[in-house]
Amino acid sequence: MSAAEPRDGWPGWWREEAGQVTAFVLAACVGLLALIGLSLDGGLALAATVRANGHAESAARAGAQALDLATYRATGEVQIDPAHARLLARRYLASVGATGTVTTSGRIVTVAVSATYHPQLLSLVGIDDIHTRADASAQPHRGVRGIES
């Protein structure tokens, strides 16, 4: 063994930095885990928003199908039955397990759906819920208006 090498077998320059690589690796792992958590939970939260939007649009379309047949037969004007429209929209929301509010104004049915996503990895850093909301409106339209040439 030469005089330049200490008794433990490690060169002096190596022994002076002992433990510093561990702190760097720990910080890098925490950063990587945070990045993975943001990517995974952010993507799943976005998917929950898209799903809520689809539920709101479908519920609004279901409500817009509640035509006031008496008005249509008497005048030919397309109107909705507000109470029946709200019932149909709420029934659709219940069938898909979504929660929301339904309002009618004139011929327009508006549905607002709220949903909560429970993060998988971000819950480790204290983010327990991600709330999302989607709004959609629909109104009835007359179908075929005439023969196309």
Report on this model:
- The chain crosses the membrane at residues 20-40.
- InterPro entries: Tad_N.
- The structure is a single chain.
- With 149 residues, this protein is α+β, with helices and mostly antiparallel strands.
- The protein contains four helices and three strands, in the order ααααβββ.
- The protein has helices at 12-16, 20-64, 69-75, 82-96; strands at residues 99-105, 108-117, 130-138.
- Strand 1 (99-105) and strand 2 (108-117) form a beta hairpin.
Structure keywords:
149 residues, alpha+beta, 3-stranded antiparallel sheet, 4 helices, 3 strands, 48% helix, rod-shaped
Kindly estimate the percentage of residues that lie in beta strands according to DSSP.
15-25%
Radius of gyration: 30 Å
The helix content, as a percent range, equals 40-55%
Number of DSSP helical runs: 4
Quaternary:
single chain
Set out the fold topology:
Layout lengths: L11 H5 L3 H45 L4 H7 L6 H15 L2 E7 L2 E10 L12 E9 L11
Antiparallel strand pairs: 1-2, 2-3
Helix pairs in contact: 2-4
Provide a quick synopsis of the model.
With 149 residues, this protein is an alpha+beta fold. It has helices at 12-16, 20-64, 69-75, 82-96; strands at 99-105, 108-117, 130-138. The protein is rod-shaped.
